């Protein structure tokens, strides 16, 4: 076996050699990886992703070939653009436009369609429809009803009402130990003020001071809507006056109790029984006459019986058992609003529920914002405001209308969404009103051109919302049948160039109440001849505009009788026609006057006197008893025995 022993050893298996090589080759360095020399440089995860993608594409192709569609739930609001609808259905915009075209609706991708049309399209594409209303954004805005255990006592909100100059603000001054009335132009309260005072027992009372002038009726009504009780101020010397009666009606409409404060009892010769009997005529029965309405006799200037008034308020508050939950999101009402040059939009808000904190996100009517700062009635900064506390808040996006509700929301997105929805609603409402007014405006212009109607157009700019509202009420009352007073625009803030442009285009005057024009606006007004009138007392506005109305009233044409003449003879003259030989039987006949021809007492012609002659001379007038010759313009059918009535038409100013 030596040969066999010499036989060379078999080489190792190729497979193992290759495997070893491959294993060694698998250990590559960075350079090799960058050169791309490795066959296994793709990771297994990458391969798996590619295979998964391929599988999904195959599945999608299979579904398409079988006609199987993915059914989605598509949310459809009241109005939606075609592109947005396509996005929600995961369809191509062009396909949606084609579907609309087949339905007879021509629309581009950017156009808006209504919910009914959108629903038809969604059904056409085989999806499910979920209809929602735009107003759903307001759902849950008002908090739930508070549990009885969460309610805590709160200060009463008291509105002071009464006739103008009966001492409302003076009474509040005496209670606050401040002098608000001295800062008011003409001693008349122009704005709503909200203040909180602390009485001796430690209880707090919130007062809302409403102006007494009748133009502020809407503001007084709004004051009553947020109040718990009304203090009716009646001057002992004047008694019940028109605004006193209105205040009683507001209090009854709001369903709030009344406390009568008979003011000015320090004046000599006052008759309290007369006041009580006048109140009785309006179903206000005071306790001294057996009723349940408290009556306190006070003097604001002498500070008499103020403690009794405060006691009566506290007692009434205990009877009402006023409570609120301070531990919830804030809700309240705007008492007043204005645009402050340095601070922006400022709103005086009465918190009614919950607690308002600095930094809270709030929605106020159609405006929104974060509460950057809060100030009380004395100008002190606050971090939080509980129920029944009036505060000024800063940080809103715009000036809200007085009377708008305030609600705290969780975040900026929600606040913005609600604000945008309300602004859209407001724009739609204004557009609808403008559309409705266009037809009437065209009619009005036609009547004006025909001399049947004229108008005084006014642009109102005021320092606060309440004043603007009051001026609108005052001006509306000045309209007559012949001449209308039209408020083109009413807003808060200084007069801008856009106000002047509006006034110029409409031939209007600008009424500025406690505000001034910007430099550019003033120059534009002077250049374009726009009349800006500045006021600080509401009576002066009413007086001036009434003078304008009277000036534009169509003058009255009044007929003045001159005399009678009797036709004695009729002469035919070439070139002149028939001439009447007459005798003046009464009054006087003047050349150029109006004449009526009477036959048997019936008017058969009315016109003008063409010629008046005495003998051969033209004369200006002929008096009673004298004879004259007359001819009539464009009329010849005169007879002997006809009577001529002469008159003049005079123009008198309307009153």
TrEMBL record:
Region (Disordered): 1-53
PROSITE patterns: G_TR_2 (PS51722), IF2 (PS01176)
Localisation per UniProt entry: Cytoplasm
Binding residues for GTP: 162-169, 209-213, 263-266
Metal-binding listed as a keyword: no
Domain of life where this protein originates: Bacteria
GO cellular component annotations of the record: cytosol
GO molecular function: GTP binding; GTPase activity; translation initiation factor activity
Domain (Tr-type G) ranges: 153-323
This protein's record includes keyword Protein biosynthesis: yes
NCBIfam families tied to this protein: IF-2, small_GTP
Protein task: One of the essential components for the initiation of protein synthesis. Protects formylmethionyl-tRNA from spontaneous hydrolysis and promotes its binding to the 30S ribosomal subunits. Also involved in the hydrolysis of GTP during the formation of the 70S ribosomal complex.
Family, per entry: Belongs to the TRAFAC class translation factor GTPase superfamily. Classic translation factor GTPase family. IF-2 subfamily.
Name the UniProt record assigns to this protein: Translation initiation factor IF-2
Gene name per UniProt: infB
């Amino acid at each position: 076996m030596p040969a066999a022993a010499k036989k060379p050893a078999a080489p190792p298996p190729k497979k193992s050699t290759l495997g070893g090589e491959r294993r060694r080759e698998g250990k590559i360095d960075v350079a090799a990886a960058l050169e791309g020399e490795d066959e296994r440089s793709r990771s297994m995860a990458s391969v798996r992703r590619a295979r998964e993608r391929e599988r999904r594409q195959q599945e999608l192709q299979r579904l398409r070939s079988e006609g199987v569609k993915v059914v989605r739930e598509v949310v459809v609001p009241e109005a939606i653009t075609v592109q947005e609808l396509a996005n929600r259905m995961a369809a191509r915009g062009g396909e949606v436009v084609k579907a609309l075209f087949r339905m007879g609706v021509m629309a581009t991708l950017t156009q808006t369609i209504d919910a009914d049309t959108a629903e038809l399209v969604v059904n056409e594409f085989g999806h499910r429809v979920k209809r929602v209303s735009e107003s759903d954004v307001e759902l849950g805005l008002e908090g739930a009803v508070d549990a009885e255990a969460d309610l805590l006592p709160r200060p009463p909100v008291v509105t002071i009402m009464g006739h103008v100059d009966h001492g409302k603000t003076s009474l509040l001054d005496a209670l606050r130990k401040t002098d608000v009335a001295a800062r008011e132009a003409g001693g008349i309260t122009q704005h709503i003020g909200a203040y909180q005072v602390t009485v001796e027992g430690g209880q707090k009372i919130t007062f809302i001071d409403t102006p007494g002038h009748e133009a502020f009726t809407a503001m007084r009504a709004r004051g009553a809507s947020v109040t718990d009780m009304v203090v009716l101020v009646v001057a002992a010397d004047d008694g019940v006056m028109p605004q006193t009666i209105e205040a009683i009606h507001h209090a009854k409409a709001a369903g709030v109790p009344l406390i009568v404060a008979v003011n000015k009892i320090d004046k000599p010769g006052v008759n309290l029984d007369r006041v009580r009997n006048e109140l009785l005529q309006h179903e206000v029965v005071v306790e001294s006459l057996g009723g349940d309405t408290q009556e306190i006799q006070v003097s604001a200037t002498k500070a008499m019986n103020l403690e009794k008034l405060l006691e009566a308020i506290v007692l009434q508050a205990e009877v009402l058992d006023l409570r609120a939950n301070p531990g919830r999101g804030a809700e309240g009402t705007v008492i007043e609003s204005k645009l402050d040059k340095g601070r922006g939009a400022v709103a005086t808000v009465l918190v009614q529920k919950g607690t308002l904190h600095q930094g809270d996100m709030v929605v106020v009517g159609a405006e929104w914002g974060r509460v950057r700062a809060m100030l009380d009635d004395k100008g002190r900064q606050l971090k939080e405001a509980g129920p029944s506390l009036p505060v000024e808040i800063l940080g809103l996006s715009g000036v809200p209308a007085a009377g708008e509700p305030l609600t705290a929301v969780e975040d900026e997105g929600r606040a913005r969404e609600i604000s945008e929805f309300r602004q859209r609603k407001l724009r739609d409402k204004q557009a609808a009103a403008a559309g409705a007014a266009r037809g009437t405006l065209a009619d009005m212009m036609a009547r004006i051109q025909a001399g049947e109607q004229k108008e005084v157009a006014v642009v109102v700019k005021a320092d606060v919302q309440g004043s603007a509202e009051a001026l609108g009420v005052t001006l509306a009352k000045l309209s007559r049948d012949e001449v209308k007073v039209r408020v083109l625009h009413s807003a808060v803030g200084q007069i801008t160039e856009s106000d002047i442009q509006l006034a110029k285009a409409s031939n209007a005057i600008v009424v500025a109440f406690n505000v001034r024009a910007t430099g550019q606006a003033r120059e534009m007004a002077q250049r374009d001849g726009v009349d800006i009138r500045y006021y600080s007392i509401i009576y002066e506005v009413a007086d001036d505009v009434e003078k304008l109305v009277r000036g534009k009233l169509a003058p009255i044409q009044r007929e003045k009788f001159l005399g009678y003449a009797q036709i004695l003879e009729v002469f035919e003259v070439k070139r002149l026609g028939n001439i009447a030989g007459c005798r003046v039987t009464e009054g006087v006949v003047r050349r150029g006057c109006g004449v009526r021809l009477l036959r048997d007492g019936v008017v058969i012609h009315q016109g003008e006197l063409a010629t008046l002659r005495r003998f051969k001379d033209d004369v200006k007038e002929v008096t009673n008893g004298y004879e004259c010759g007359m001819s009539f313009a464009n009329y010849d059918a005169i007879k002997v025995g006809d009577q001529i009535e002469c008159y003049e038409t005079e123009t008198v100013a309307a009153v």
